[in-house]
Amino acid sequence: MSLFLGIKEGHSIVSPFLNNCCGQTSQGLIFGGAWSILGRRGLFREDVLLQNGRRRTSRRDFLKIAAFSGLSLTGRPTLGPQFLGENDDLFLGHIGVCTSLANNDILAANGCAYIEEGVRGFLVPEEAEEKFLAKLSELEASKLPVRVCNGFLPGQLKAVGPEPKNEGILAYAETAFRRAARAGVEMIVWGSGESRKIPDGFSRAKAEEQFADLAKKVAALAARFGVILTLEPLNSGETNFINNLKEGAAMVEAVRHPNFKLLADIYHLLREGEMPDAIEAFGRDIRHCHIAEKDKRTRPGAAGDDFRPFFRALKKVRYQGRLSMECRWENMRAELPAAVAFLKKQISEISAS
Q1: For the whole model, what pTM was predicted?
Q2: Residues 193 and 287 in one domain
């Protein structure tokens, strides 16, 4: 039996096979350039009803259907907002780690809510579709979802300068976003310091104009697939363009697109000498956070850095996003329990205040 009996733009005719597996009516699937599941809260939470009183399907079964049929998952449906360590009711209740999917068992055992993978390592936009399907198979077996991917653009895809690679960037981005939607990745971090580095002697004003124009196009692509881009200011030791929250917020304002927002990396803030009041000033645009200790980018608790002033600022601006540890590990399995405990202790002190 064919999975789809037919499609028309704006709606679909879905086979009884998919209805029986997913409990969806033909109105639940929309064709708009790519198959998309319209998200309902908790839609693909493990062993939870697809609709109240409707049939059940497991995450594993759904991913098999999605991989076979080319379904793309958009918005926040995949695996559901209350998967394992995620807690929507707690301030900074979604803690994850920037690491490989292969470490999912370590993260899950320590109460983490999600994995932040790499665009090039997980979505593999430079590789054939078969390579990505293998990654989806790995995701099926994971105890945690991949909610975020970082390391957006490779260095050779220059975003600014005398010969920007806009055409290549847009093609690369479209593949990345399409695959992100299929894998349930909701957010992609745009750091990519080498890609956006301004060449010596090149006009900064021209680079700002180039980047803003490119970002508008990339954000529009991201919106098609339900992906949010978060621009990451990087310290001046890593790049020479967009080094602090003020500069990042100015770029977000220049782009003015709902799918292009700001990331606050506490490590980079500390390296640049930015104070928590920068978070208060630009918190309206912040959708994601990274964290590590200042001196050696060690895990939280290794040197005992006090992050509470930054957490206090995030609470003040009513931040509701995730917090990813992006740090160096000597032995993640041995070190992660203490890192999670250290963060949760400081977070709980701010939550209670």
Answers
A1: 0.79
A2: yes
Task: Summarize pLDDT for 49-76 with one digit per residue, the tens.
Answer: 223 333 344 555 445 444 444 444 443 3
Q: Does residue 79 form part of some domain?
A: no
pLDDT tens for 101-154 read: 999 999 999 999 999 999 999 999 999 999 999 999 999 999 999 999 999 999
- Which residue range is the domain that position 49 belongs to? 4-73
Total number of domains constituting the chain: 2
CATH number, domain at 199?
3.20.20.150
Structural tokens at position 227:
């992906």
| 220 and 280 housed in the same domain | yes
Mean pLDDT throughout 166-175? 98
For residue 90, pLDDT over 70 is answered with yes
